[in-house]
Amino acid sequence: MQSLAQSRFASVLAVLVGVWLLLTPLAISMTGAALVSILITGGVIAFLGLVQLVWVNALPSWIMGLAAIWLFISAFAFSVSNAGAWNQVIFAIVTFILATWDGVEIGEFRRQHHIHS
User: Fold this and answer.
1) From 13, 47, 65, 88, which residue has the greatest number of CB atoms within 10 Å?
2) pTM more than 0.70
3) Number of alpha carbons in the 13 Å side-chain half-sphere of residue 94
4) Domains in the chain: how many in total?
């Protein structure tokens, strides 16, 4: 499965982004709904990155893309510091790019190898 090397790399990076988001409250003070949101979103992204490592299906990537959109929106929906908002915006964009890259590559791999769900 050499052709999935980029997908695996994107998945590992997604796991690292998720872990970073889980650790963010240690570096940037967050409370209330903002704290809960970033912990849940970070956990979802890390989990989906792990799932994508073992399941050749684009669904986790597309769900991760939705999590990235929520991460972006939540940077403005909750009261967070400037540093917290920038952190969320940057990692939302990174996550969206990784999810799209991973999802497109898996979809292409499945088409080339005639894999059906």
Assistant:
1) 88
2) yes
3) 19
4) 1
